Amino acid sequence: MPETPETNNAKPETAPTPEAAAAPVAQPAPETAAQAAPAVKPAREKKKTYEGEWAATGRRKNAAARVRLLSPGTGKITVNGKPYDKYFTRETYHITIMQPLKLAKLIDKFDIVINAKGGGTTGQADAARHGIARAIIKFDTSLRSLIKKAGFLTRDPRAKERKKYGRKRARKRFQYSKR
Length: 179
What we know:
Distance between the termini: 99 Å
Helix content: 25-40%
CATH architecture of the domain at 53-150: 2-Layer Sandwich
Largest sheet: 5 strands, mixed
Order of helices and strands: HEEEEHHEHH
Strand order of the largest sheet: 1-2-5-3-4
Shape: flat
Structural class: alpha+beta
Oligomer: single chain
Number of strands: 5
Number of helices: 5
CATH class of the domain at 53-150: Alpha Beta
Strand content: 15-25%
């Protein structure tokens, strides 16, 4: 059977037209990844800590506390720009925050800057304690067993239970009416 242009799948070769010859030629792909344009958005760089600075985050209930230990220091602790004894008014909060520092005997070695948000004052104080303990571990890993044994590295998982439908709160029921 003779091949006709309809049955032949191969296209006949033709000479390039002047318009095609004047068209821009595609550039070869760059050799290195640095030369190539990033296809995806680069990951956000972590905030760099400086020499003599150790940072960690502590959490409790709905509170989160970003903690930075600054060395050399005098033992000054600030929470959200205020001295910690002005921010946390109860003595129990002062004791809570100082627990990991007293245990590691590092009370006057650092200045501590805490940025706490979310939750209430109890949650923020416990979150600050958790963050300070984690930052101390970054400072000196040999203190890990001591601090872990005291329970300061464990994130307390207890949080408010969600409200259920048909109830007043999570477990409390509406008042029963007999009649």
